[in-house]
Model the fold of this input.
Amino acid sequence: MSGSSTIAPTKPSTQERRLRLPGLSGQLATTLLPFIGLLVLCLVLFILTPNFLTYGNLLNVGVQASTIAVMAFGMTFVIVAGGIDLSVGSVAALSGMLSAWMFATADLPGWLALVGGLLTGLVAGAVSGFAVAYGRLPAFIATLAMLSVARGLTLVISDGRPIRTSPAVSWLGSDVLGVPVPIIVLAVAGIVTAVILNRTVIGRSMYAVGGNEEAARLSGIPVKRVLVTVFALSGLFAALAGMLIAGRLDSAQPQAASGYELDAIAAVVIGGASLSGGVGRASGTLVGALILAVIRNGLNVLGVSSFWQQVVIGLVIALAVFVDVLRRRGTRS
Amino acid sequence: MSGSSTIAPTKPSTQERRLRLPGLSGQLATTLLPFIGLLVLCLVLFILTPNFLTYGNLLNVGVQASTIAVMAFGMTFVIVAGGIDLSVGSVAALSGMLSAWMFATADLPGWLALVGGLLTGLVAGAVSGFAVAYGRLPAFIATLAMLSVARGLTLVISDGRPIRTSPAVSWLGSDVLGVPVPIIVLAVAGIVTAVILNRTVIGRSMYAVGGNEEAARLSGIPVKRVLVTVFALSGLFAALAGMLIAGRLDSAQPQAASGYELDAIAAVVIGGASLSGGVGRASGTLVGALILAVIRNGLNVLGVSSFWQQVVIGLVIALAVFVDVLRRRGTRS
Amino acid sequence: MTAAAPVPASEPSRSRTSVPAPAPVLTLDSVSKSFGPVDVLKDITVHVRPGRVQVLLGENGAGKSTLIKMMSGIYQPDGGRVVVDGKAVHLGSVRDAERLGIATIHQELNLVPSMTVAENVLMGRLPSRGGFVSRRTTRRLAREALDRVRLDVDLDTPVGQLGIARQQLVEIAKALSLNARVLILDEPTAALTGSETEVLFGVVEELRRDDVAMVFISHHLEEIAAIGDEVSVLRDGALVAEVPASTPEDELVRLMVGRDITEQYPRRTHTPGEEVLLDVRGLTRTGVLHGIDVQVRAGEVVGVAGLVGAGRTELLRAIAGADPYDSGTVHVDGQRLAPRSVGSAVAAGIGHVPEDRKGQGLVLDASVAENLGYATLAATSRAGFADRSGQRSRAQEVATRLRIRMRDVDQAARDLSGGNQQKIVFGRWVLAGSRVLLLDEPTRGVDVGARVEIYELINAVAAAGGAVLLVSSDLPEVLGVSDRVLVMSGGRLTGELPASTATQDQVMALAVKHADDDDHVAPSHGPEGSPS
Amino acid sequence: GTAACGRGDTDGGGSDEGSGKSVTLSLSTLNNPFFVDVRDGAQEAADELGIDLTVVDAQNDSTAQTDQIASAVSSGTEGLLINAVDSDAAAAAVAPALSGDLPVIGVDRTVNGAEITSLVSSDNVAGGSQAADALAKAIGEQGKVIVLQGQPGTSASRDRGAGFTEGIAAYPGIEVVAMQTANFDRAQALDVATNLLQANPDVVGIFAENDEMALGAIQALGARAGDDVHVVGFDGTDDGLAAVESGTLEATIAQQPRELGRQSVELMADVLAGETVDSEVPVAVETVTKDNVGDYQS
Ligand SMILES: Nc1ncnc2c1ncn2[C@@H]1O[C@H](COP(=O)(O)OP(=O)(O)OP(=O)(O)O)[C@@H](O)[C@H]1O
Ligand SMILES: Nc1ncnc2c1ncn2[C@@H]1O[C@H](COP(=O)(O)OP(=O)(O)OP(=O)(O)O)[C@@H](O)[C@H]1O
Ligand SMILES: [Mg+2]
Ligand SMILES: [Mg+2]
Done:
């Protein structure tokens, strides 16, 4: 490199410098604005019914968001890596049920039943992941099959009846120093998700795999291992959500969490992730899950008829994402 | 530049020629082999229970496949164009219900109620399409919102109760010359789908949009119009499926077809389509829907317990797609 | 560019600049364009005249593609006017431009991989009656268009199964079949070898005779003299000069980069060692590769030449672990690599620049820094945590070294110009400090100045005892950079030449040899297979 | 907040003991005409008594029910009527109401493991047993029967199924040849019944765990319904009663859902007025056949 030294290294020109500022505020927007949307939603509800903004009701919303949020955190890994996981609801039910069964029928100690339940989810997720990574099944099919299998096994184990959970699981439904444990679990799960996605090698690899699988593979990223990991994580988080449900109800239900998969995916997408992979954040997912919980809670508190509730929920979901779309278009141009 | 061409123009080498043969037989395989898989499934069921392969039962399977198949045909358009439609089950219910309401409450003539129901689906689909094409909503979100809205409206209209259908709709549940009308509808819908996808300009545009939206746009294909069309078609086909359900039951049910969206998508994917768009065939979708119906019918006929049925269905879906994956890998290398 | 390209010298009979310039069909009148706060183009006027080839020249990121996108209706100018036939027009969409007879071959391929060649050629314009596609007319029109570029492939082949070069030809055929008055060619030759380039230029001459107006962009300066008429030189989004195409290359380079480039192919001072660093033996993949032996010594640069479809890409991919192979071995520094494992290849020090930067090289939504750092993500981590600040500063360093033109390393790769994207893919392995580079068309779309940078880097790797296997369709490049040249044809090695003495004719002779001799394909037969 | 109720017809509304109080009715689902009837009965009574009734629908999800009740309590409801999605899981759901000293009345299903004020219910297990008797009688205590099960894992399916199995065991001549789920859904019942009849052509009786599935089975049977094959349903919905009248449905076990809803609200009004009430209020479960169907149709 001799002759080239006459060339001055590329320096940012002034116009390029100017760019950096809006760039920063753009990033700010990505994280802040959906949150502002959430605040507006809360404000509207507060004006409509003062009962909404009470400490007690906000705790309610937090608790009610916790299940979907925890599932959605797990789903974020999968969606960032370009997949989808339809089995989270069923896996949550299976984990909760197997944990209760370990305690009630297999007489394991309570904490072991809790760990066993979590492992169940991890294994179920890893199985889906193997089917996707090594069996080359589309994620939609692999996890749809797991949805069916996990729900079936839940029914087989329980013989269709609820089973009482272990004290360790029930504890997840209680309060600690006035704060409901589900909210604490929610917070911890969110932080763990954010750290994994942002800071770890496997997390950054998820974005690469979701963004362009072939480019990731050719760069030496172990794509298959990443895929198995994301589904295993999703299963683990689903199991944790299953424990929360069982803990809050003091019993594992055979039909627990059915249909939750669509809510979890919706939370992730409302939070700004793209189903084509490579994009998504833990904070966005949290906001998405909170928006869903606030809508549900708000409609209950407002006393909207349950038939109309479904109509309104659909409209608000569409609106929330539409606002996000507008915002992005705004920051881009 | 005449004499300068010392170098021969690009020619395909023999290896490329050789490649073409498997290419042709590969196409044969794409249409034939899943069908063979279906035949094997039928044979297994026949060995397990002779009741399976009776004329009457095969008609049953056909009728039972018709609802999902018709929805799945509509879904094929959407998936080929790179989208997904979660609302088909709800739109089917809404169309059936609104049609019944038009007849029972608004006193419209029966055939008009039938047409009205179909238009309902078309409009609902077009609304989703507009949201996707012009509102830039992800298809998953737009149709998830429509799922919720359409189901809510169905409940509002019906007040949660079944409504009797018009005679024109009920006719869809009857037989013509010993052949059940649903099977005739299934066949016609399949042919229409195949013709649209293979022969028409809009059909070919769907493949282009699903295969590479940017390239389609730069080639002057009206991408937005194509997107609205595929969702409108999906809504129309869903409405037709809704009429079939209502016709067979002589009544429109508020909970009709809930959860069918996953079955319809599964049928399309089992039939060889890719959720990332650009790939899919009407014949594949038919086979996918038949495989699902045969599994369900077979498990009933075999008397498998309700709990285990779900486990088996999940495994068979995974297996069916896995065989397809293996086959493709086989023809490629 | 001193080496002669396989391009005919300009024919004396051509009109060129001898007659007064005809009135322009299309004019960009003082246009400017910005993305957000960045002014990409500033007050530029360009005329496109019938029967003339207007060349746009500039470094990577100078704004050439952005400029032509305003002619084809993809972008609308923020300031200034688009004038067609003397009237100011608004080109709101691709359709608008097509209606006015403006066709574009874009820098990036715009094909649908899953659809057939025929449908891709006529995409958006499938001949139809009553909404039904007329298949016979489709096939006929597609065949005609493909014949013009002498591309002889089965009309029913999915385009995704063709190599990049043939896809480029399909793209060209597609634009030609529009029978446009104005044809815009954005780096159409970047992915082509000399022979296809020649065919393309033949077509350009025909179009010139038919008074078609053309815009041409290329980083191969010798092509400008070969077919261009006038040259507009862009620098940093501003028009710095308008000169005739006959301007000497040195002068063009000076106008473009603002300095002289003395040596197009910088020579190395050291000689390769004896130790074989990359040792490939008997590599075979049924139908694709046939018993390939390649040895690259430490400090050596080996070029691989061949026609499109010779299997060069397949060879590199097999060595890099990207594709499986049926038999044979790959050793790096005496250590055998596991087949079909990119991970073990990267760990052994292999760096592979794939031929398709968008499809195989880049995560477009990720930042420049992320893209540069993928190969070192795991190696630089601690306890599973990525070394983000370290990665970022290393990426910054490499980006500066490669003169990647961007806002900052956090900009999304998608927003960079084509040549700068190519530099990212190369830079990944610079950052990783790879000892064995497998380069598949590493300078495609890269400007003259930056190309020298890449050659310097190749030399630096070799000087540090590395080994480089270079596939390029740019023959002067292969001859100018390599120590020796291997020639492939039909998946076999057909010969080896020392680069210092080899001529392009010798290489081409070897490149067509095998196909003619062993493959039982009559070379000069007309369109094979597909009737009608 | 002003509670906008599902039915906007709050026309009358006499001033009675519970007047002006706001009460929440948490239903397991409204996607089933039975519970729509419960709601209608409750709404009627509320309108008459001037009670501000808010109806929430848990969509058969215990967790959603827990969430909705928590929301209702924090928004200031004064009394809770709960139709539990699942009896065992409902204790947690009613906990916030009980800790706020609100009266809690179970509707149709009990709440296990919590001290609720009262329970207005009909006995599903007994109903299942009655269904067995009705079916046995119709087929002459002889022959093969099939059972269409509700959604696996729901208490209604469990209790009715258990009652039927228990009841049918008393008839040694009857054999249950198949039990399959149709998820309480009419369309699914049509398919499943068709398939089961294909596998077991000599079936003479069908018990469906709700009327919707019974009607689906009747559709599958076509002309054979009520003739060669006798069907017994459960719930006594409008469509079910109509089918009984026309003879295609042999019998249905009528729970009088309107009555359930009405009595629950009336009981709540009493509680809110400070009266003491019985801890269990039974609502008659009747076997409705062609003979007495007239008494049940509105
Ligand atoms: N959509 C966009 N958003 C932001 N910046 C963009 C966008 N498109 C182009 N740019 C910027 O505009 C500048 C000009 O890009 P353009 O593609 O026109 O360059 P080019 O001259 O064609 O370069 P090359 O020779 O590499 O193809 C680049 O700096 C690029 O980063
Ligand atoms: N999946 C595939 N199916 C069918 N043909 C293929 C496939 N992959 C590659 N080929 C063919 O194999 C041949 C070798 O590939 P390729 O063209 O990439 O070789 P190359 O020598 O690297 O040429 P270039 O890079 O100049 O295009 C090509 O003709 C290509 O069309
Ligand atoms: Mg460019
Ligand atoms: Mg190549």
